[in-house]
TrEMBL record:
Organism: Cyanistes caeruleus (Eurasian blue tit)
GO CC annotations, alphabetized: cytosol; endomembrane system; membrane; mitochondrial envelope
Coiled coil: none
Any one GO biological process: negative regulation of apoptotic process
Intervals holding TPR repeats: 79-112
Name of the molecule in the record: Tetratricopeptide repeat domain 9
Taxonomic classification: Eukaryota, Metazoa, Chordata, Craniata, Vertebrata
Keywords: TPR repeat
Matches recorded under Gene3D superfamilies: Tetratricopeptide repeat domain
GO molecular function, one term: protein folding chaperone
Length: 137
């Protein structure tokens, strides 16, 4: 794959693939997904490409969760994978798991404002869920 791709782009512009004539223009997220499908056993690469997945316009949080959990199987202390797992679980509506991963991420970087913000959001969601459950009883 690395021999086929030449990256001359920023996030805002499409990646140019010099594979054959004429060069094909596709979005960088498609390249990230292609590379991930070919190299899922490379945890550091997975972490780099999780960024691509999180920055996509329509984020596939299920896929982000899947790749983050793969990284955590090999590198259980990986801050980015912990944080991104928490974010993915939050957006998938699994607030208990989101809180677990976010708190694990906070234990590694206690002052990270993004982690703190998502912990607050998750705790608010959990509080609302428990209030609704009490109201229905």
């Amino acid at each position: 794959v690395s021999g086929l791709l030449t990256a001359h782009s920023s996030r805002a512009e499409p990646l140019v693939i010099s594979y054959s004539k004429p060069p094909y223009r596709i979005s960088w997220i498609k390249v990230c997904l292609f590379v991930l499908s070919r190299a899922p056993s490379l945890p550091r690469d997975c972490v780099a490409f999780q960024t691509c997945l999180l920055q996509a316009e329509l984020v596939n949080y299920e896929r982000v969760k899947e790749y983050c959990l793969k990284v955590l199987q090999k590198e259980g202390e990986n801050f980015k994978a912990l944080y991104r797992s928490g974010v993915a679980f939050y957006h998938l509506g699994d607030f208990n798991k989101a809180l677990y991963y976010l708190k694990e991420a906070r234990s590694r970087q206690p002052t990270d404002t993004n982690v703190i913000r998502y912990i607050q959001l998750t705790e608010m969601k959990l509080s609302r869920c428990s209030q609704r459950e009490k109201e229905t009883l």
